[in-house]
Amino acid sequence: MEAGRRPARKAGWAGFIAVAIVLAGCAGDVAGELNRNVQVRDRVMGAIATDSTLSRMMAHRMLANDDLRARTVESILADDRAAQYVLVRIGRNERALDYVLQAAAADSAGRSHLMTLLKGMQIAMQSKK
Predict the structure, then answer these.
(1) What is the pLDDT of residue 1?
(2) 90 and 128, same domain (yes or no)
């Protein structure tokens, strides 16, 4: 019985060592491996997308600095469904809506357009009464 366990342990350690060597080799150039190997990239991105903790962590990293934040937001706004979702969420969040209105009113052209929209809304509301 003891003899039967030893080969299994040796095989287990050999497998562990093989995986460690492969991971050590990949750890040096993960970005390069992801760029070169579509299958690995799809598996990694799939793992991130399906795990809420990993996806939240990745989102935080994508928003961590100005350059990444700009590219991430532009990617979201370039996708019609994602942009619509974000705008609906902003419309339902008073603080986010305040940010949008402040940004719109930051210059004279924005203020003028905002006032035109608000006057149009006011007229529409009065005609319903």
Answers:
(1) 47
(2) yes
* Residue (of 40, 35, 61, 57) closest to 48 by Cα position: 57
From 65, 91, 108, give the residue that closes a domain: 65
Task: Provide the mean pLDDT of the chain.
Answer: 84
Count of domains forming the chain: 2
Task: Pull the structure tokens for residue 74.
Answer: 């532009």
Residues 6+ apart with CB under 8 A from 55: 48, 49
Q: Whole-prediction pTM value?
A: 0.61
Domain, as residue range, for 36? 31-65
User: Does residue 97 fall inside a structural domain?
Assistant: yes
- Asked whether residue 34 carries a pLDDT value surpassing 90, the answer given is no
CB 68 within 8 A of CB 61: yes
